[in-house]
Amino acid sequence: MASTLPPKPTPEHSTATAGGMAEVGHARPRGLMRWLLTTNHKEIGSLYLIFSLSMFFIGGIFALVVRAELFQPGLQLVQPEFFNQMTTMHGLIMVFGAIMPAFVGLANWMVPLQIGAPDMALPRLNNFSFWLLPVAFALLLSTLLMPGGGPNFGWTFYAPLSTTYAPPSTTFFILSLHIAGISSILGAINIIATILNLRAPGMRMMDMPLFVWTWLITAFLLIAVMPVLAGVITMMLMDINFGTSFFNAAGGGDPVLFQHLFWFFGHPEVYIMILPAFGIVSAIIPTFSRKRLFGYASMVYATAAIAILSFLVWAHHMFVVGLPLVAELFFMYTTMLIAVPTGVKVFNWVATMFRGSISFEPPMLFALAFVVQFTVGGFSGLMLAISPADFQYHDTYFVVAHFHYVLVPGALFAILAGAYYWLPKWTGHYPHLRLSQWHFWLSVIGVNLTFFPMHFSGLAGMPRRIPDYALQFADFNVASSLGAFLFGASQLLFVLVIIKCVRGGEKAPAKAWEGAEDLEWSVPSPAPLHTFETPPDFHPHRH
Amino acid sequence: MSRQEQQARGREGVRRTVSRTLVVLAGMFAFAFALVPLYDVFCEVTGLNGKTSNSAQMLVHEEVDTSRMVTVQFITRASAGLPWELDVQTRQVRVHPGQSNEVFFTFRNRGGDASQARAVPSVSPSEASVHLRKLSCFCFQEQRLEGGERLEAPLVFQLTRDLPADIKTVTLVYTLYPVQPAQAAVSPRRPRKEGDSA
Q: Where is the signal peptide (chain B) (predicted)?
């Protein structure tokens, strides 16, 4: 296996903490080949993060095309066909290209550091799963230039819109999703193998930091549902190209079956995008409250409960397909049940801060904004869970507001919080304080200006995924579009912060934050290329 | 335990973890495909989704419930790209539960060439579909019409007496889809022929 080959330290990056200096004789590839061939978890983690940041901007530009068109009623800038491609590509890129790889990147960087492992369990597999991603997304983006355009059926690609009525490029879309899916699966295998086998001696499961716990559970979700996604798109491929009728009523198939299969994948997928965020926030809030995390064990069990429940709620996305009453009630109640473990988590975060000695460094600002705004998204989710009410809300901007609240000020803010939290460990410098604060406040204002009015336009009946709208929604949409451009522009500040932080800034010590206790803070800042080659002495200090 | 021993044990653990996850992966991929027939069976047993049996059923001999009337409506549609028409002799009939009824449908091929099509049924509300018994239906098989040909085909059906009392109207929808002979052959769920499993 790949793990039999020890990673080779570089003279220019190694420090006294890096063991295995006997290997120095091997010349490491330089330049581009260094990144193509790297098996180092930190370098691969950085690659993932840089990739996801660039996808975030590409997906963001697509979103701004949508918002620019929706600035006014009527058609001004783009044709409806292109508008559909933009909404679809925005969703696909953000879900599969930005949020998921960002979490995998953070896992690559931080999981070995947090459990005291020298690297991921399967370093060469790790390299492969990263380099699949640029291939997948280059292929996906290239469909925009193909005759008939790219995918235009929404990121949920419901059949028969994505089979019988789809553009010819759909086969490329399926292939790219297959590649991205394989990448996620390989990443998940690697993370599970690392967490279960490479923990520092003495670290029990219930001693692991919550980011490690949430990622372990996320990886199991990925293993369980990515194959289902692969199955669904394989069926689509066969319907399109080989004349089968899985989703074609004419041949005895059923389009509703597609929705069941898709959401059986899709709902756990939603939690794949939020559970690691819970882990990041559970690391940051105790650090800046200078207290232990309140209710560590209940956090672990709540995460597991959310993961299990996520397999029992998929049809709440399908309340209007004509489910029988019993099914409507079943999925309504199971969905509402998820509010219980989620409520436990929010309670624990608040209880951690209670009577803590709180300071408001940039990571804490983003984490606090996460807790408040994710809860807003959770509440609108509860409203949508009410099956009879959902008949009104279905396919309106209320749904758009809901899932953007959990994904942007939710998952994305947690990623930003994690980046600010660990940047001193990655670069050895603190991020520029003023710029970070500007980034935070402009992002908060921008994100709420964008998505809060969507609740109202949605409740008033504005349908989603349509390039034009009735006049009475004009004011809400002006606000949303202005907010979107503000939010998009303020993310450029984030890039500026990162560049400045890489090049210099206030030097960070090994323990960059006063209240930070996990193992990653015991290695120097910046973390040397090789860490924990001899396992650290681990003493359970909290929990 | 020496460091070497520890590393060997770690490698062994990794190998075990990876092979276990691979088994789960293969299982879940197979499960996705297994869901297709499972879904069909589930729909057929519960009658959800308005699916009706694709084969002829026996008439249930029971006394006709003259105390109530149910309206049965017929909707016919021809899908785009098929030069066929499907008409029904009457748009709606009023029937008693338990009684057997016959309605004639007319297929017409407006095109110049012979083609094949199949009428796919759907029942609304879906709860009614388990109480609908079709003794004979043109929808059990594909139809082949020469250019300009016309065909009259009957639907013989019965609504059983245990039809829930709150169902006052049952709508039967028939949608005509073109059938390519080749396509029918690879279809994973080729409609069963009459008498396959009645």
A: none
